[in-house]
Structure formats: structure tokens, C-alpha cells
Write a structure and sequence with these properties.
The complex is a heterodimer. By secondary structure, chain A is mainly α. Chain A contains four helices and no strands. Chain A is elongated. In chain B, the strands form six sheets. In chain B, strands 4-3-8-7-6-5 form a six-stranded antiparallel beta sheet. In chain B, about 40% of the residues are buried. The chains are: A mainly alpha, B alpha+beta. At the A-B interface, helix 2, helix 3 and helix 4 of A face helix 4, helix 10, helix 11, helix 12 and helix 14 of B.
Chain lengths: ~80, ~1350
């Protein structure tokens, strides 16, 4: 869990998430669901959307924890 | 159905509620409670991004393109993933630099360029106006829908217009009242932000409500809806569109646009950056904003599908959200939906107009004012200018919607605006992550992007609105097809928005990069670029905990005590720390806040500074890291919040801080000055005390001095009261000081005068009483401000006494009279003495008169005796000089004879010298008389020293040789050629000494040693004899007059005046004379005389030519002298020279002869029996024809008598006897104006000349005649020789050569040559 926390605190992870999002909601992956019809692409997009909102929420929580740890003098990585 | 009034009422109520909420929040904020300082408020505020455009337009877009519209909301979700790096950095920059807007940030990053700020502002305005148009279009169209006003209804447009106008006015008023109240752009606008954030919930609620109603009310959920739609023709169409290239290009375009605009729209930037309270709020926004958008868009596609399934045309897709519930008979839901749209529009417009108006005034208006001084007055109306900007922006949007809006759907307008704002994205991203990006690149990039935006989007909109020819859109400008605005380079596959985004991004980014690489930035820009790019490298700013006590005080105390231990002993360090804690009032606390920690730190530094100095203490605490980086960041945040709560811009705060610092300095200076003044005053007081003490001492001393004075002295003050009464006054008056001190009213006079009366001091106290006081003092005078008076006192003790009073005023430092001092001296004895003295003086005067009378008589007698003496001396002198005149005169006449032999000449010279010595003896007697009467004067002239000495020596030598004494003359040193002095007196001195030496020497000799000291010009002369010598007791007497040595016996000669005259003369010439002598061993007289050497040319005594006659007619001279010898002497002198000389023995005889002979010149003696010379001269001039006769007086009298003066005055010239022949001839020549014929002094013939003379052969007369000629030659009678020669030539012409030779030699007075010639021919046989 600690490793996972350390992972998502790194800004490179933010970039990774950004790139992953772009990858998942852009052509050609998007075309896969788009080809299946409006329902398919609608579900796909909102699922992805919700997923990444969850990721962002976790990132936020992680940043809050990081700030608290730094306030307590624990080293962290930005 | 909702009526317009109802809708307006609802909107008004909503606006009122929002307004009240905003006001409440502002008031809370003023009270220190920040409602806006909440993460969810921050996240909700960012959802203002979803405006009326997306509120209504997304459904319309979905109706035509399916899920494509979701790209506008997925893009922000993508973007927020990076906000922890992007937005957090922007917030830190904002906190560091207190930036006020997006334009301000870009300008700051790019060298604070006003041009860039202006360009960003222009882009924002260009972007905002279509946006506003979008809002107005949405409000107008939905107002028509909800009020069920069909387009065919003529009133519909007007109602929409009116509502839009109301909306515009509301926006303007709301913005001005809540958003632009003050000129403080950096402050947060909590009220507006909170109100608008709450408003976003309305639109979300409304949209979710209508979505649920449509999905689950009108249909059986998503499945049912999708199933029906897929079975409809719209489904197939949408499905096909989702597989086309344009779908993906559009999708990507929307993603890019929304990613950028969610943060880089001016109002989004303001909400996300400027209004951010804490960085951690960004984290909430990162998931909250996407979640809000997800919810907001969850029913977009279903509603669109439902609308289409309900049979509404695609073009009405923007209003499906209203039409669907309205169609089903709902009234509340449409109203709620409309309110949601209204909320979305107002939120965006209020925030954006507030933001962009600030940019307009700061980055457009102010630079213009700075450029045009005439606009300076506007600086005072900046707030009003901002209000005007708000109004202009809103009205411009309203105008734009009216012009262009009818030709575009909502989504298109939104895209146009979004693409415009996209142009700032590259420079902002570059600003945050690329240090090399600079102002030039930013300017190039944004300008090029904006230009292409206008070309690719605005121009086509205007073309479609009909303002520009459609040909450009179809064929390109000037027919250049590859420049068609929507198909640049022939790119036809992209829809217009994608096309514009593609080309503007290419141009913008390309120009930005190339421009940045092409140009260089200065160091300041590089520095700020580094700071911004590395903003996140600094410690994170933690949450605001200023008021929370979370820091362990014991830990901090330990740290500070540990630091103190480096400088102080342990107990002392502990005590100092406790003092700090006690001073701050935190002693009992376990934990302290960051603010208290800062105070603790400061207190500790102050106490340490008192020991080791301020600089060292600061360094020590700084290095100690007592405040950790985290705490330091907290502290900064506390200060930042304090600044924010002050609600003033950084510049104003800085100004105030500077002001207070300056004021503190001034107060410190004033305090220092006051301290210095206090110290100075203390010094002055101390000095004054010293002075007062010194004054008291001085007064005490003065009182002692006055008390010590022998005169009765009193001092009164200005009021006339006694303040000092000295001991002498007590003794004089018998009245003690204690009885007098303090008494006034002239009571001080009573002890002196027995009555109360004014005295001297009253004159100084009251000068107006002078007359009265003068009457009381017989003698009174004012001298230098001091009154001095004498009077008779009636002392109580001593009775009557004469007193001398002196009174002087006493002044203070300002010159004011503060009292008078008077002393009274008893002068009775003096007065009596003076009286006695007066009596003695009278007697003395009588005696003096008697003595004076006697002295006058004695003086008269003395004068008579003196006169007799003078007369005697004069007579004696005259009588002695008369025979001497004959002696010396004839001696001179005889010397003129040429035939005298050398021996005879020497004998004559001795006669002359003796005569002259006799004459000098006579002169001595006269000189002594003159010396005694101090009538002798020096006659200084330049003369040759050696000849004069030798002459004197020769005179004395004759006498020495007579006594067969050895006579030597020695010159010890070389003598100067010429000296200056009185030659006659020197000669007299030397002659006296030499003759004296010879006189007193029987055997042996006399030696004269002469020396001269060049450096002092002193002539030394020692006369040493081997004579009889003198005893020591006689040495002092020898220089006394009429003194002769005893025992001199036969040597007794003269009158004993020689040495006395010698000494007087030596002293007169400032010399000295002394004598050394022993009886029997001779004497040595030592003479020292100052005779300075001179280089003055001295007329050498030349061998005067012998006067033999004169030229011209014969002249007659009458010699008048009662002495026949003297007369004969003159006849003998003058007759041979060719004068006719007559003699007379008395005055009458002379008058007779003169009358007969008419002489040309008279030589007249002064003293004659009967008629004296004066009378004779006067009478001679009275004779007819003799008025101009020349008279030369002669006299042997040298006394300075009136007769002599009268005689000299009556004659034309005067000569003393004995007569100097040469001088007499000179005077005769002067009186008669004759030219002498003279015999040139014969010079020695050289052997050659002699031979010539001898060798000449002449025919000569016979020997007998030659002997006669020889006789004439021996006598030197040249005139007769010339006569003889003429007679010889007349008798016998053959002797002419000889006669001519004789005449030649005679005329040249060549006597020797003549004699040689004659004697030669006499010897030679004829």
C-alpha cells in the first residue's frame, strides 16, 4: 500500500494518467466502442470518465496525506 | 406555461437571493470568516466554466453529433489531471507576485511586457464578446421558448430582446456592486464567487432534474431510450457520424479546446488562481470539477435522443431541455431549467466582466493614460472607468449577438470564443515549463494565432452574416483558393473549428518557439522565468494554521536554550529562555501557534542581540533552523493571509509598510533627538548649577574682597537698599553691618553725614538728581561711568573728615543695572598735606624767583666773559695770523721760482710746514674753544691715506732728525688707496702724537706702525717712543687740557692742549685712543679710528701749472691793507703776472685811489684802523663808476663774528689769511673773467727728446746774449724770454729758427728744455 501511495504521489504518475486518458478516449481505442454504436460509446466514455474521476480523487487524497506528512516532518516526494 | 412576468420574477428573486448571499459572505469575510475558503466552494466556482452555452448547446450538439459534445467535458477532466503541476504552480506564482489576472501573469512572466498584457486583454475581449453574445442568445431564445412565444409571434423577438436587455442591466449592476466596488484587483471576491458557486448547483440540479424526468419520466431509463433511438433513423445517422474522420478531428479539437479553456479563460483563470485560498483546494477541484461535469452531461445525450425521438428538429436541439418538459405539461421543471440556464449565464458574465474589466483598465487604459498626459485626470476615475468597462463589455456582447448571433448556433459562437482564448494557452504553458520562452516569442505567437483566428473564424462568420463578400469564403482572397479562410492549404476534411484550432495552434506555437529562440531575453526575464518554472521546487505552502497551536513549545525552548548555551552558562541560558516565554505570555502553554513561534523567535533574537550584537544574533538564529522550512512556509502563509485580509494590493501594503517604517525611523530619530535634548538639558542644568555655585562662590569671594577693602565700601541694590557694608565702613562710621543691611531710603548717608541725603551712588541710581548732588560735592566728575566726588563728611565716629567717594554701577549679564557700589576714602591727611604743600610751594616759588634772578645776572656775566674770551681769542688769532700770512705767503711766492735748488725747496717746505704748524697751534686754541662749546663738526671727505700719512711723517721726521732720533714708519698691513673721513682732523691727531713723541724722547727713536682692518674699516696706529715714559697715575691726566707731565723739564713746550685736543678729536671721529707707558721706558699711544675704505675718485693734486700772466688788456688791482707787509706780499704776487697793482693802508686812502685809478678789482682787508673793511666796501661801491667793482675780502680773523659775516656779505668773494696763492689766483680769475697764461708743468724729457733738442742746429746769438738768455731761463720768465726772442729775431733774422724754438718752448713753459738748449749752446764753441 505504501508503495502504491508513493507511486501515485509522483508527478510522473499524473502524466501517466493524463496520457492514459488521452489514449483511452482518443482514436483508435475510442473508435472500437464508437463502431459499436451510440450506446456502446456512451457507456464506455462515462465509465472511463468515472474511473478517472476516482483516480483523481485518490490523487487528491494522496496529496492531502503528503501535505500532512510534510507538516509532521516526514520526507515525501513531490 | 410560464408567463414572461413569472419568469422575470423568478429570475429577480433568484438574483436577489444571490445578491443577498454575496453580501452576507462579504460581511462574513470582513468579520474575518472566509466562507469562500472551502474546497467545495472552490471546486464549484470552477464549474462556472459550464455556461449557458454548454447548458443548452450541448444538447443541441448531441442531437446532431452524438457523443461528440462530450469532448468539451472530457477535455477538462484530462486537463485537471495535470493541475497538480500546472494550477498549483500558478497559485504559488500568484501568492509570490500577487498577480491580479491572467494578463498580469503572462506579462509578469514575459519581462513585464505591457504589449503582451495588452494583447492578452485584447484577445480576452475578442473572446468574451462572442461569449456574451452566446449568453444573450441563449437567454433570449430560451426566454421565448419558456414563455411559449413562437418565432412567428411578432412580440417574441422584442420580448427576447427586452429580457436580454434586463439581463444585461442586471449583469452590469450586479458586477459593479459586488465585483468592482473597490480598486483592489488582487483581493478575493468571496461574495460573488460563493454566490455564483451556489448558483451552479441550481443549474446542475435543474439539468439532473430534467434529465431524470426525460429518461425516467418520459422513457424507461437509459436502456429504453438508447434502444428506441438506435431503432430510429437518428440512431443510424449518429452511429455513422461517429466513425467518420471529421468526428475524430472534431473530438480531438473539442478535447484540446476544453483542456485549455477550462483554465485559460480569463474568468476561469481568475477563479482557479486568483480566488484560490489554499493549494489543497486544487486537489478537491481535480475530482470535483470532473464529477460535476459528468453529472451535468450524464443526461445530455439522453435528452438529445429524447428530443429527436419526440420529433423535434435537430435545429431546436438547444432548447430540447426546455421543450421536452414543457411538451409534457410541466411548468415548474421548465422554469427550474430556465433558472439553471439563467444561473449559468449570470455566473459566467458577472465573473468574466469583473475580470476582464480589470484587465482593460490595468493593461489598456493605464498604458494609454501613461502615453497621453492629458488623460492623467482619468487616474482619479479608474474605478469609474472599470465600471464603464463592465458596461461596455456587456453591451458589446449584446450588440454582437444582435448582429451575428442569428447566423450562428450557440455551439459555434462558443467555439469561436474558445479558439480565441486558445491563443494564450501556448504562452501560458511555455511560461510554466519552458525557461527559454520569452516576451518576443510570446508576442509573435499570440499575434499570429489571433490573426489566424480572425481569418479562419471571424471572417467567415461575418461573411455568412453578409458583411463581407462570400467570394472570399469560396475562392479565397484575390481568388487564391489555398487561402480560403476555412480551407487553408486546401485542407477540406476539417470542420471550421478544427481547421481554425489546427492552424492557429501551428502558427501560435511555431511563432512562439521560433520567436523565443530567435530573440534573447535579459537577465531579469531569465530570473523570473527560473523562479516561475521552478516555483514548485520551493517548499509547499501548507494549510493555514496561523491560529492553531500545534507547535511543541518545550521543543522550541530546548532549541533556543541550546543556542544560548553557545554564548552563556547553562543556568543563564535557561533563565533567558524563560524570560522570553514570560515576556510573551506563553509560559503556561504546551503548544504554540506559528505566530507565537515567530514572536518567540524574535524575542530570543533580541535578547541574544543584546549580548553579541544584532547581526551576529540574526545569523546565529538563522543558522539554527529553529523555525523549520515547513514552519517557515506556514509563517509565510500567515503573513500572506494577513495581507489578504487587509484587503489591499501589495503595492499599497508595501507603501504602508514603508510609511510605517519611515514613521518608525522618524519616531526613533525623534526619540533619539529627545533623548539627546534631555541629556543636553541635563548637562545644561548641571552646568547651570555649576555656574550658580560658581556665582555664589564668586559673590562670597566678592563680599570677602569688599570686606577686605581698606576704604569704607557699601553696595546697594537697584532699590537702593544696602546689601554690603564692609568692615572699613564699620570702622569709619562706627555702625555695624547688621544695622545697615537692608536699609534704604538714603539711610546709608546718616553714618557718613549725620543726615539723610543723597550721596554719589544715588547719582547712578537716579541720574535726574545730578544737580542736587553736585551742590553737595565741591568736586564731582563722571569718568567712564564712575562718579568721583570729594566732600566733607561728618562721620558719626570720626567727626569731620575729607573724603573721596567713588561710585560705580553693577550690571547683570544683560547689562541692566542691578545695584551700585560706593567706596569712601578718608583723605583728610592728604588734604592737609596738600594744603601744606601749597604753602611750601609758594615759598619755593619765591626762592626760585630769587635764584633765577641771581642766575640771570651770573649768566650775563658769563656771557660777557665769554664774549671777552671770544674777542680775545679772535684778536689773538688775528694778530698771530697776520705775520704768518707774510711768512707763508712769501714762502709760496719763493717756491714759485724755477731756479730754486732741491735743498732750497726743502728748506722752504720746512718753513712752510712750520708756519702751518704754528698756524695749526693757533687753530688748536681756537679748536679747543670750539670743542669746549661743542661747535666742532666733522668734515668728511674722501682722501688718499698713504700720501697724507707720509706728509705727516715727513713733518715730524724733520724734528726727529734734529734731535738725532731714529724715526721709523712701518705699515703692518696694506693700506687702502682711499678712505673717507675728516682729513684735517686726522692729520692734526697724528701730528700731535708724533710731535709729542719726538718732544718727550731724548734718545732712541720713534716708531710709527700703521695698520688697517679691511673688515671693519678701522685704521690702527701705534706711536712708540723711547722717551721718558709716565707713571700710571699720570696716564689718566695726560688727556686733560693744559696738562703737562711733571719732570718733563726742558721738554716743556706748547700749551698742553695737544693730547686733550687729540682725545676730543678722536672721540669726535668715534675712535679710541689709549696709552701704555712706564717711567723711563717710553710710551706707546694706540689709536683706533674708523675710516671706511672708499672707491670715490679723488682729485689728485696735480702739479699746478705756474701762472705767468693773463691774456687781454692789463687790469688794475687795488690792495687795501693796513699791514704793509701783507700789502707788499700781494703786490709781489700780482705785479709779475701783469697787473697794475696799487696799495692803500686804510679805507679813506683806498677810496681816494679807487676814485682816481678806477681799479678792476679790490683786495680788501677786513680789519683796519678807522674805516673797517665793511664800510670801505660799501663806500667803494658808492663811488661813481665803481658800482660794479669787484671786491675780494681778506682777513686773518677766523672768529665767527657778526663783522665777519657782514664783511663777507659786502664782498664778492672772501679768502682767509694766510693767503693760499693758488686759491687767490683762482678767485681773481673768477671775479675778473680773465684767462691765465700758465707755464705747463715741465715734464721730464725723455732721452730721445733731450737728444732732439740738443741735436738741433741753430744759428745762435753770441755768448753774451746767451748768458742774458740763460739768466731769464733760470728765472723761468717765459714772457720775457718770448720778448727777448722777438727782439732777437728783429735784430738778426738769421737767428729766427733759434728764436722760434725759444718762443715755442717758452709758450709751452718747457723751462728745463729751454735751459738745456741755452746751456748747450753756451758750452759749444761758436
Amino acid at each position: 500500500m505504501t508503495r502504491l501511495t508513493r507511486l501515485i504521489r509522483q508527478k510522473q504518475f499524473h502524466l501517466f494518467i493524463f496520457c492514459l486518458q488521452v489514449l483511452l478516449i482518443e482514436w483508435p481505442i475510442l473508435s472500437v466502442s464508437a463502431a459499436r454504436g451510440l450506446r456502446s460509446v456512451f457507456v464506455y466514455l462515462f465509465t472511463i470518465w468515472a474511473f478517472f474521476i476516482l483516480i483523481l480523487f485518490l490523487l487528491h487524497k494522496s496529496s492531502l496525506d503528503e501535505a500532512s506528512e510534510k507538516d509532521r516532518g516526514v520526507d515525501g516526494d513531490d | 406555461m410560464n408567463s414572461p412576468a413569472a419568469i422575470i420574477l423568478i429570475c429577480t428573486l433568484y438574483v436577489t437571493a444571490i445578491f443577498l448571499l454575496a453580501v452576507w459572505v462579504e460581511r462574513k469575510a470582513t468579520a474575518g470568516k472566509n466562507i469562500g475558503n472551502r474546497a467545495w466552494i472552490y471546486a464549484l466556482s470552477l464549474t462556472i466554466y459550464q455556461t449557458a452555452w454548454t447548458y443548452y448547446g450541448s444538447v443541441g450538439k448531441a442531437a446532431s453529433t452524438g457523443v461528440l459534445v462530450l469532448g468539451f467535458y472530457l477535455g477538462p477532466t484530462l486537463a485537471v489531471t495535470l493541475w497538480w503541476m500546472v494550477l498549483r504552480k500558478l497559485v504559488r506564482v500568484k501568492n509570490s507576485y500577487l498577480i491580479t489576472s491572467m494578463a498580469d501573469f503572462i506579462s509578469l512572466r514575459y519581462n513585464k511586457s505591457t504589449a503582451i498584457a495588452a494583447l492578452v486583454t485584447v484577445i480576452s475581449i475578442f473572446s468574451l464578446i462572442p461569449y456574451y453574445a452566446l449568453q444573450f442568445k441563449a437567454m433570449g431564445s430560451t426566454f421565448s421558448v419558456i414563455t411559449n412565444k413562437l418565432p412567428a409571434d411578432r412580440a417574441a423577438p422584442y420580448l427576447a430582446l427586452i429580457f436580454a436587455a434586463i439581463f444585461a442591466v442586471f449583469t452590469i449592476v450586479f458586477t459593479i456592486i459586488l465585483g468592482v466596488r473597490r480598486l483592489a484587483p488582487a483581493e478575493r471576491h468571496q461574495g460573488v464567487v460563493v454566490a455564483m458557486s451556489i448558483g451552479t448547483l441550481v443549474k446542475l440540479t435543474a439539468f439532473l432534474a430534467v434529465g431524470c424526468y426525460v429518461t425516467y419520466g418520459l422513457f424507461d431509463g437509459f436502456g429504453d431510450l438508447f434502444a428506441r433511438f438506435e431503432q430510429s433513423p437518428f440512431g443510424a445517422s449518429i452511429n455513422r457520424s461517429q466513425t467518420t474522420l471529421s468526428f475524430y478531428t472534431g473530438w480531438t479539437t473539442y478535447l484540446i479546446l476544453s483542456m485549455c479553456t477550462v483554465l485559460f479563460l480569463p474568468w476561469q483563470f481568475h477563479l482557479g488562481v486568483i480566488e484560490n485560498f489554499q493549494e489543497k483546494h486544487i486537489g478537491t477541484a481535480m475530482w470535483g470539477l470532473p464529477l460535476f461535469m459528468l453529472l451535468q452531461n450524464l443526461f445530455v445525450v439522453p435528452i438529445a435522443m429524447a428530443g429527436l425521438l419526440a420529433g423535434y428538429p435537430v435545429e431546436q436541439g438547444d432548447t430540447f431541455v426546455l421543450r421536452l418538459p414543457m411538451a409534457s405539461g410541466q411548468t415548474f421543471l421548465p422554469a427550474l431549467v430556465f433558472l439553471g440556464g439563467f444561473s449559468a449565464a449570470t455566473g459566467m458574465m458577472v465573473i468574466s466582466s469583473m475580470t476582464v474589466s480589470t484587465m482593460m483598465t490595468n493593461h489598456l487604459l493605464l498604458p494609454v493614460i501613461a502615453s497621453f498626459r492629458r488623460l492623467d485626470v482619468l487616474k482619479q476615475y479608474l474605478l469609474q472607468c472599470r465600471w464603464l468597462s463592465v458596461a461596455l463589455l456587456v453591451l458589446a456582447g449584446y450588440w454582437f449577438e444582435g448582429i451575428v448571433g442569428q447566423y450562428l448556433i450557440l455551439v459555434d459562437i462558443g467555439i469561436i470564443s474558445s479558439v480565441a482564448m486558445l491563443q494564450v494557452a501556448p504562452v501560458i504553458i511555455g511560461a510554466l515549463f519552458w525557461k527559454r520562452g520569452n516576451a518576443a516569442g510570446a508576442l509573435w505567437g499570440m499575434a499570429s494565432g489571433l490573426a489566424l483566428w480572425i481569418y479562419t473564424l471571424i471572417l467567415p462568420a461575418f461573411i455568412r452574416a453578409g458583411f463581407v463578400s462570400h467570394d472570399i469564403l469560396d475562392n479565397g482572397p484575390l481568388g487564391i483558393s489555398w487561402l480560403r479562410p476555412e480551407h487553408i492549404m486546401g485542407m477540406a476534411t476539417f470542420e471550421p473549428a478544427s481547421h481554425a484550432v489546427f492552424w492557429t495552434l501551428i502558427a501560435n506555437t511555431g511563432c512562439y518557439i521560433i520567436g523565443s529562440l530567435y530573440s534573447s531575453e535579459d537577465e531579469a526575464e531569465r530570473a523570473i522565468a527560473r523562479e516561475i518554472v521552478d516555483a514548485l521546487a520551493a517548499p509547499p505552502i501548507p494549510e493555514l494554521v496561523s491560529g492553531e497551536a500545534t507547535i511543541d513549545l518545550a521543543v522550541k525552548k530546548g532549541e533556543i536554550e541550546g543556542l544560548y548555551r553557545h554564548y552563556f552558562p547553562g543556568p543563564r541560558s535557561s533563565a533567558m529562555v524563560e524570560e522570553c516565554v514570560s515576556a510573551l505570555g506563553i509560559a503556561g502553554k504546551a503548544q504554540i501557534s506559528i505566530a507565537e513561534l515567530a514572536e518567540f523567535y524574535h524575542e530570543a533574537e533580541i535578547r541574544l542581540a543584546s549580548a553579541i550584537g544584532a547581526a551576529a544574533a540574526h545569523q546565529a538564529l538563522f543558522k539554527s533552523e529553529i523555525i523549520s522550512p515547513v514552519e517557515e512556509a506556514k509563517l509565510k502563509r500567515v503573513y500572506a493571509d494577513m495581507i489578504a485580509e487587509l484587503k489591499m494590493p501589495a503595492s499599497e501594503l508595501k507603501t504602508k509598510i514603508d510609511y510605517h517604517r519611515e514613521r518608525e525611523k522618524l519616531l526613533t530619530l525623534q526619540a533619539a533627538e529627545l533623548e539627546e535634548k534631555v541629556r543636553e538639558r541635563d548637562r545644561e542644568i548641571a552646568e547651570r548649577r555649576k555656574v550658580e555655585q560658581a556665582l555664589r562662590n564668586s559673590e562670597s569671594r566678592l563680599a570677602d574682597i569688599i570686606n577686605f577693602l581698606p576704604d569704607a565700601t557699601m553696595v546697594v541694590d537697584a532699590a537702593g537698599k544696602i546689601i554690603i557694608w564692609n568692615r572699613a565702613a564699620e570702622e569709619f562710621t562706627g555702625v555695624k553691618a547688621v544695622e545697615m543691611l537692608g536699609k534704604g531710603n538714603q539711610e546709608y548717608a546718616i553714618p557718613f553725614y549725620g543726615e539723610r541725603r543723597p550721596i554719589l551712588l544715588d547719582l547712578l541710581l537716579d541720574p535726574s538728581r545730578e544737580q542736587e548732588i553736585r551742590q553737595l560735592y565741591p568736586h564731582l566728575e563722571m569718568k567712564n561711568g564712575i562718579a568721583i566726588g570729594e566732600s566733607t563728611t561728618q562721620s558719626l565716629k570720626q567727626g569731620k573728615a575729607y573724603t573721596l567717594g567713588m561710585a560705580a554701577p553693577l550690571y547683570d549679564a544683560e547689562g541692566k543695572v542691578i545695584g551700585v557700589i560706593e567706596s569712601v576714602r578718608d583723605i583728610t591727611e592728604r588734604k592737609e598735606a596738600e594744603e601744606e604743600l601749597k604753602k611750601h610751594r609758594a615759598n619755593l616759588e619765591e626762592l626760585v624767583k630769587e635764584r633765577t634772578s641771581e642766575l640771570l645776572i651770573a649768566k650775563e656775566r658769563a656771557e660777557v666773559a665769554s664774549q671777552a674770551k671770544s674777542s680775545f681769542l679772535s684778536s689773538m688769532s688775528h694778530e698771530l695770523r697776520t705775520p704768518l700770512n707774510a711768512i707763508l705767503g712769501y714762502t709760496q711766492i719763493i717756491r714759485r721760482q724755477e731756479y730754486l735748488r732741491e735743498q732750497q725747496l726743502q728748506q722752504l717746505e720746512i718753513i712752510r710746514g712750520s708756519g702751518e704748524h704754528l698756524l695749526s697751534l693757533i687753530n688748536d686754541i681756537l679748536d679747543m674753544g670750539k670743542i669746549e662749546s661743542e661747535k666742532v663738526e666733522l668734515e668728511e671727505t674722501a682722501f688718499d691715506l698713504s700720501p697724507m700719512l707720509r706728509q705727516v711723517f715727513n713733518i715730524a721726521k724733520v724734528k726727529a732728525e734734529e734731535k738725532k732720533l731714529e724715526f721709523r714708519y712701518e705699515e703692518s698691513t696694506p693700506l687702502p688707496q682711499s678712505v673717507r673721513g675728516d682729513q684735517r682732523k686726522l692729520k692734526q691727531i697724528l701730528l700731535n702724537l708724533l710731535t709729542n713723541a719726538v718732544k718727550y724722547t731724548r734718545e732712541g727713536g720713534v716708531t710709527t706702525r700703521v695698520s688697517y682692518r679691511d673688515e671693519s674699516g678701522i685704521l690702527g696706529c701705534e706711536v712708540v717712543d723711547t722717551g721718558i715714559g709716565m707713571a700710571a697715575d699720570h696716564l689718566k691726566l695726560i688727556f686733560e687740557p693744559f696738562t703737562q707731565l711733571p719732570g718733563a723739564g726742558e721738554t716743556r713746550e706748547g700749551v698742553g692742549l695737544g693730547l686733550a685736543i687729540t682725545k676730543r678729536l678722536v672721540e669726535l671721529m668715534h675712535g679710541t685712543i689709549s696709552v701704555q707707558s712706564e717711567p723711563g721706558r717710553g710710551s706707546t699711544f694706540i689709536l683706533q679710528l674708523p675710516l671706511p675704505e672708499t672707491t670715490v675718485e679723488i682729485g689728485r693734486e696735480r702739479s699746478r701749472p705756474t701762472v705767468t700772466g693773463y691774456q687781454g688788456t692789463r687790469r688794475k688791482i687795488l690792495v687795501v691793507d693796513d699791514n704793509a707787509v701783507n700789502a707788499s706780499l700781494l703786490v709781489s704776487l700780482l705785479q709779475p703776472l701783469g697787473f697794475d697793482v696799487f696799495t692803500a693802508g686804510s679805507g679813506p686812502e683806498a677810496l681816494d685811489l679807487a676814485a682816481g685809478q678806477k681799479p678792476d678789482l679790490v683786495l680788501l682787508d677786513m680789519v683796519m684802523p678807522g674805516m673797517d673793511g665793511v664800510t670801505t666796501a660799501r663806500e667803494l661801491r658808492r663811488l661813481r663808476g665803481l658800482e660794479e667793482i669787484r671786491i675780494i675780502g681778506t682777513s686773518a680773523t677766523v672768529s665767527d663774528t657778526e663783522l665777519r659775516h657782514a664783511f663777507v656779505a659786502s664782498c664778492d668773494d672772501f679768502i682767509s689769511k694766510p693767503v693760499d696763492v693758488d686759491l687767490l689766483l683762482e678767485k681773481i680769475q673768477g671775479q675778473l673773467g680773465i684767462v691765465w697764461e700758465v707755464a705747463v708743468p715741465e715734464k721730464e724729457l725723455t732721452p730721445a727728446e733731450a737728444a732732439t733738442v740738443a741735436g738741433e742746429t741753430f744759428e745762435v746769438p753770441p755768448q753774451e746774449q746767451l748768458r742774458e738768455l740763460h739768466k731769464l731761463a733760470l728765472f723761468g720768465d717765459m714772457r720775457r724770454i718770448r720778448i727777448w726772442a722777438e727782439e732777437l729775431e728783429g735784430r738778426a733774422p738769421q737767428y729766427r729758427p733759434f728764436a722760434e724754438k725759444l718762443r715755442e718752448l717758452a709758450s709751452r713753459y718747457q723751462a728745463k728744455a729751454l735751459l738745456t738748449l741755452v746751456e748747450q749752446h753756451m758750452k759749444e764753441p761758436q
